[in-house]
Amino acid sequence: MQTSSSPTIEIYTTPTCPDCRQLKAWFDQLGIPFEEHDLARPGVAEQAKARTGVRVAPITVVGTKVYYGTHDTQRARLRQDWPGLFGSGR
Questions:
Q1: b/e for 66-85, b at 16 or more Cβ within 10 A?
Q2: DSSP SS3 for 74
Q3: Rounded distance, CA 26 to CA 23, Å?
Q4: Which sequence spans correspond to the domains of the chain?
């Protein structure tokens, strides 16, 4: 659950991306709010690349840290970097 001191979470997704759906479902399951950006919308992919240097979905931005790769890869890294938010057993 996000608190007032929790970082902002943004995810860049595409409508047909299975890893994007899994990542969003995991955040929902944990009760972690996030802002979603659809890379299929005009200008969003360019904004994401300029901001993160990444061109593949899903891209997750937590505070100032950028994560990309499969749902499993991101989940492991998020748990490691943010144990108070994502917890190791979640």
A1: bbbbebeebbebbeeebeeb
A2: helix
A3: 5
A4: 9-84
